[in-house]
Amino acid sequence: MDRKTLEGRFEAGLFASRWLMAPMYLGLVVSLGMLMVIFLRDLAYYVPQVMSMTAEEVILVCLTLIDLTLAANLLLIVIFSGYENFVSKFDFDAGQDRPDWMGKVDFGGLKMKLVASIVAISGIHLLKRFMEIGESVAAAKFGETELFWLVVIHLTFVVSGVLLAVMDWLQAKSYASK
């Protein structure tokens, strides 16, 4: 076997290895189902209690449900964009139901959507913790130290997102100047 044939088979094998990612995306679909179960469980738990809840409690429940929804949106973005970017293009006609962003989110766009979702989820989690402060000192789950670190972690996510956006902007600018 000559070198060219060997190289061609090796490269074809490397290219086919992308399919090893498919079970990982299937695992993310299972994770999406897990989030749905938790969402429905929380909804079923809180709906019967709504008449006895304070406005602040209802807001905390809503923030929890929004948090779960944002995490599910994040999973969908990773599943669809990751599969299309790294494994294979979807080759079925979804018609009008196909989201506009599908097939258009490259790795840089995926990275920015991930960071933006993580910042939003972190912000909602932080807001929930701050709303719990007003309840009672005994009922508060987090002390000053824990809240401080939640703010530091959130700000770390925000700064990381800004730095990633600046790096993408600089990279795009360098490609445009060539």
TrEMBL record:
Keyword Flavoprotein: no
Pfam families reported in the protein's UniProt record: UPF0114 (PF03350)
Membrane topology per record: Multi-pass membrane protein
Keywords noted in UniProt: Cell membrane, Membrane, Transmembrane, Transmembrane helix
Keyword Protease listed: no
Transmembrane parts of this sequence: 20-38, 58-80, 110-127, 147-170
Main location: membrane
Subcellular location: Cell membrane
Homology family: Belongs to the UPF0114 family.
The protein's name in its UniProt record: UPF0114 protein EEB11_06325
Organism field: Pseudotabrizicola sediminis
